[in-house]
Write a structure and sequence with these properties.
GO terms for molecular function: oxidoreductase activity. Keywords: FAD, Flavoprotein, Lipid biosynthesis, Lipid metabolism, Oxidoreductase, Phospholipid biosynthesis, Phospholipid metabolism. InterPro entries: Dggglyphlred_Halo, FAD/NAD-bd_sf, Geranylgeranyl_reductase, GGR_cat. One of its GO terms (biological process) is phospholipid biosynthetic process. The chain has 13 helices and 17 strands. It starts with a strand and ends with a helix. It is an alpha/beta fold and about 400 residues long. Helix 1 packs parallel to helix 3 and helix 1 packs parallel to helix 7. Strands 3, 4, 5, 10, 11, 12, 13, 14 and 15 form a 9-stranded mixed beta sheet that branches. Strands 1, 2, 6, 7, 8, 9, 16 and 17 form an 8-stranded mixed beta sheet that branches.
Length: about 400
């Protein structure tokens, strides 16, 4: 006899767990399949800086218990300058945050199965009707949701999203103690989340210090595996080599040591616009269809908002009298994603690409530009406001714009 649920979700990260939480609250039978074991969850998937802002905290009822440190500022650093924006945020203990989401979903009736790696869709008449996991195990559902992140075993086999590795960002992060967060030669990072634009440290990407209290911080970097990275990369150096290089060259880390018992946080994401996010009986959420803010990379809130949009779409599609999970009906999720989750996504992606094409000297100029245009500029840019982007553009940026156009046209 076929085992069946209303909705099956692959992946118990923030998006998958939030979607299960919302659907279970609406009394749907929901199954979440998670690759990792429950003992010590999360392990390998504990891969986020977990910096977010108060809109996410209040919008999803995230409790103080999973917050490592509340912050007052976002700091952008360039090789020789910095800019401070006053904005309250929170650095989460990511493992505890994910455990809280799982517990919330279970309390509302969602079923979780750990040690359950989803491998392939089950297809009937050209439509997905369930998933295979752990080899030959099968489960069926009216709607299947891929929340596995860049792995995307279902989205890829259904030819949804069109994810390409040449636009993939990879990152690594460790938790440190002994970090001098108020060093005289740098911005004061007490109670701050800092992102540094510096190709010497993170070619084609950025590095960060997120203060987690006292002399502790999350320290890491990421870069996008594309032309910008290749242009600025050092021969033979990988992601871990760049982090060690930064730790060795920045005096803020002279006395820093990795906190005993903490794990490396590793992750990846596709930095590209998704072609689509749904088809018959199927939706992709979270880092399977990611979107991040250009200037401070916050993605947790966007992932959870995509989960909520998918849950609302599923709720509408699974009407008791006339359920309709066709591609046409589930395309409402795509509309919600573009209007509510990631409005002006193409403009925001353009800013991200232009940012990493710029040379180090332009980053110093960017800090001055931000000071001269006012505190709202960052918010406007992260919202995809092309006029705000234009305010930061100079005639000397023409080579960057030409290179961006060439890449977009694949010349």
């Amino acid at each position: 006899m076929r085992e069946r649920f209303d909705v099956v979700i692959a992946g118990a990260g923030p998006a998958g767990a939030q979607c299960a939480r919302d659907l279970a609250e609406r009394n749907y039978e929901v199954l979440v399949l998670e690759t990792e074991s429950e003992d010590g969850f999360p392990r390998q998937s504990n891969k986020s800086t977990a910096g977010t802002f108060m809109s996410a905290m209040t919008g999803f009822g995230i409790p103080d218990d999973v917050v490592m440190n509340y912050t007052d500022n976002v700091v952008l650093e360039s090789p020789n300058d910095h800019y401070v924006r006053n904005q309250t945020g929170a650095v989460l203990e990511f493992a505890e945050f994910k455990q809280w989401l799982v517990s919330e979903g279970r309390d509302k009736g969602a079923t979780y199965r750990f040690d359950s790696r989803v491998s392939a869709p089950i297809m009937e008449n050209g439509e997905i009707v369930g998933v295979r996991y752990d080899g030959d195990e099968e489960v069926y559902a009216d709607i299947v949701i891929d929340a596995t992140g860049p792995a995307a075993p279902l989205a890829k086999k259904l030819d949804v999203c069109n994810l390409q590795r040449d636009h993939q960002a990879i990152g690594v992060e460790y938790e440190f103690e002994g970090v001098e967060v108020d060093h005289d030669d740098y911005a004061d990072l007490r109670g701050a989340m800092m992102l540094r634009l510096d190709h010497d440290l993170a070619p084609g990407g950025y590095s960060w210090i997120f203060h987690t209290g006292d002399d502790t911080a999350k320290v890491g970097l990421c870069y996008i595996q594309n032309g910008s990275h290749q242009k600025y990369a050092k021969d033979g150096m990988g992601i871990d080599d760049y982090l060690e290089y930064w730790l060795d060259s920045d005096p803020r880390f002279d006395d820093a040591e990795r906190i005993e018992g903490t794990q490396a946080h590793r992750g990846s994401a596709h930095i590209q616009p998704p072609d689509s996010m749904s088809t018959d009986n199927f939706m992709a959420i979270g880092d399977t269809v990611p979107t991040v803010d250009p200037l401070w990379g916050e993605g947790i809130h966007k992932g959870m908002k995509s989960a909520r949009a998918a849950a609302a779409t599923a709720d509408s599609a699974l009407k008791p009298n006339e359920p309709d999970t066709s591609a046409e009906n589930l395309s409402v999720y795509d509309q919600l994603w573009h209007s509510e989750v990631a409005p002006k996504h193409n403009a925001r992606l353009m800013m991200t690409e232009l940012l990493y094409l710029a040379p180090n000297g332009r980053y110093d100029q960017l800090m001055e530009d931000l000071r001269s245009t006012g505190q709202d500029t960052l918010r406007q840019i992260n919202g995809g406001d092309r006029r705000a982007i234009a305010k930061l553009t100079h005639l000397s940026d023409m080579p960057i714009l030409v290179e961006y156009a060439r890449r977009r046209l694949d010349i």
